[in-house]
Amino acid sequence: MSELELLLLLSSTILALVLIYDLFKRKEKALKLPPGNMGWPFIGETISYLKPYSATTVGDFMEQHISRYGKIYKSNLFGEPTIVSADAGLNRFILQNEGRLFECSYPRSIGGILGKWSMLVLVGDMHRDMRMISLNFMSNTRLRTHLLQEVEMHTLLVLGSWKENSVFSAQDEAKKFTFNLMARHIMSMDPGKPETEQLKSEYITFMKGVVSAPLNFPGTAYRRALKSRSCILKVIEGKMEERIEKMNAEGCEKVQNDDDLLGWVLKHSNFSTEQILDLILSLLFAGHETSSVSIALAIYFLQGCPKAVEELREEHLEIFRAKKQAGELGLNWEDYKKMDFTQCVINETLRLGNVVRFVHRKALKNVRYKGYDIPCGWKVLPVFAAVHLDPLIYDQPQLFNPWRWQNRTSKGSSSSFSSMTATNNFMPFGGGPRLCAGSELAKLEMAVFIHHLVLNYNWELAEPDQSPLAFPFVEFPNGLPIKVHNLHHHHHTNNKLI
């Protein structure tokens, strides 16, 4: 090839590259993307995005990006071009258009550890079927008839072991409570039994891997979690085989073990073994992790707000006295419905603590919103925490103020507009077709736990400066050590709390 031909080939190649680049830039220009910074190649801005920060804030990364680019900005996170939304309207729009314009899209590592049939990563019909099973099992009727008593029993079991003046981790106690409840609720496993304790320790290892960097090398948290996953699945599979044997021996009609989720799924679905295992593992994860963090957050926020504890105590003493007078034992649904201020405390704990800070979605089509384009295939992160902590929506958002939830619907009150705006923008359990299936159970757990806590104990932080951190999952790095004092003016009967 002559020099001239080589020169012509080179220049035409360069020209072609320039044209392609120009076309790409023009296409990007034609698409009106939100402002933002794509960061480094591949890793983008992920490291800064995931840096731990105080859970009652949105963190420096979000604050700087919102002040620089506004509430909708582009970035490169988790290895993909991403639109981040701190905009309440866009968040609602994304969740309401689930399956039409957007779909769930978690990083592959999450699917690797929770399983490909996990409710968190499933989309479409299969997700709908699994969600229906979970919703039926946690229906309002079951909450009233079965679960309320279970929740109270497990609450008393944990609180009854607290010793006067002793110091212990409130976070660990909350985890013990929710784990025992879920193990019982899902597979009829009894608290304190060796197999339950064994499952719990495997589960703790598993949880550390779910939230760690997905590095599958010996010695990493992720690799250890994958090992724990198979141990947990063995236990679940063992329980499943026992149950199927029993059902075959006695005939399906006679086995009335619909009291746990495993029995329910075996009887009311035709899922494969692998699907059932992943479903149970993901519900164990969802039902244990988020509720325990919420309870620890309530304990933390309430110790800093004595006025709220006082008002809670009045509400629960009234319920207790009425029950005593009627000679009734144990809480019932009517008692739960009387816990009005408790619901305000629960809402405020979820708003300020933000257990689920954001979710992962992906655009299924090119979408236009408020003059911006969200290109098909891009990741979208609706950040609920940014809305819950927005001073334009919530007055003094950094303040723990349960009273802001009172009279939310009262017409004519001067605050009705701002409270209704607040209610519309309150999404602790997500929204749309993927609204958390266990949201009612989670609120019930918190209410029953708070009932017995305020009636029986005063508590204080055993160490200063214990604020929760977001990693991005929320945790108290030191486990939230507290010191408790019995309220002696109440009678303890048969070693049971009131």
Automatic annotation (TrEMBL):
Binding site for heme: 436
Stored Gene3D superfamilies: Cytochrome P450
Protein name: Cytochrome P450
Species this chain originates from: Macleaya cordata (Five-seeded plume-poppy)
UniProt-recorded Gene Ontology molecular function terms: heme binding; iron ion binding; monooxygenase activity; oxidoreductase activity, acting on paired donors, with incorporation or reduction of molecular oxygen
Family as reported in the entry's similarity comment: Belongs to the cytochrome P450 family.
Keywords: Heme, Iron, Lipid biosynthesis, Lipid metabolism, Membrane, Metal-binding, Monooxygenase, Oxidoreductase, Steroid biosynthesis, Transmembrane, Transmembrane helix
Membrane association type: Single-pass membrane protein
One GO cellular component term noted in the UniProt record for this chain: membrane
